[in-house]
Model the fold of this input.
Amino acid sequence: MKGIHVSNLIMPLAAVLLTLGATGCKGTKALLPNVSGKAGEVMVVIDKDFWEGALGDEVRAVLTDEVPYLPQREPLFNLSNVPLTGFSDLFKVHRNILLTQVDPQLDSTGIFFHKDVWASPQSVVQLSAYTEDEAVALMDENAELIVAFFEQAERDRVIGNALLYEEHSLADTVSAIFGGSPHFPAGYKLRKATSDFVWIAYDREYVYQDVLIYKYPIGEEKDPFSADNIIRHRNATMQKNVPGMFENSYMTTSPVLEPLVQHVKYRGLDFMQTRGLWEVENDYMGGPFVSHSFYSRDGKDMIVTEAFVYAPRYDKRQYMLQVEALLYSWEWAVPEEKAQN
Done:
């Protein structure tokens, strides 16, 4: 029997996995250790022959595919691998695990998604197949789901950290202007605020991770979510509010790579996601950006939350993941009359 399932338990694979039964007991989640490993890493549990064969090739093709819209090639995830016989307690607490099992004696096959099995906050994908060919097919057919599952896990960890160490004054400032705000962790600072634009920055030497929030009236625009309209308003806003280091220099959208605009629905919020590259007119700065465009509560304005990174000396995947995740934490402020009830 094949299937795709989401649960908090993994079915036993072998003697090394028999401890899983205890993880489902009520109340044990609080006893789980913290996850190990770096952000963006996936531990692949796979026997050596399969890792060096077609299944390993497919795993690498899916999980080390190129991250879109970065200035240089970077993989979606960094991989390490360990055989099932070596999958000890040391490895079981890794943050992201792809657990493969190829065995003709299995009771069922499929892709199974699990949370907080041996550690927290942990994400585990179990791939079970009768043959290697079937395992390769399952990996290929479910590639987008697997990538999205691990990406969401990393996003949730960033948001969880932001909530735990939140700089509440920033959300208060943003909410007063836009009626809602992302959550910002300690370290982010208010750089600029006007009646329709806020710039919040987490800047260190050679690394900028910044969030811009702005709005503009929709007016009579026939298609406010078109790529042309989104980029036109973005460029006008950047020219007005995000100057470069030199006279007549300012941020704009790079024409080197046409931005990708796509509809996203995430936890009750509909928005258009725009992903592209930015540059500075009359200067040599640049990097990746992503924005979320959505209606204001009254439907009169377009609200845009944007994350961008400048890190000329470093890879940018993790910096971008961290600041982009904050956009997904957007929450509308509670109306004053409801807050008083």
Observations:
- The longest strand covers residues 269-281.
- The chain has two domains: 4-161, 167-340.
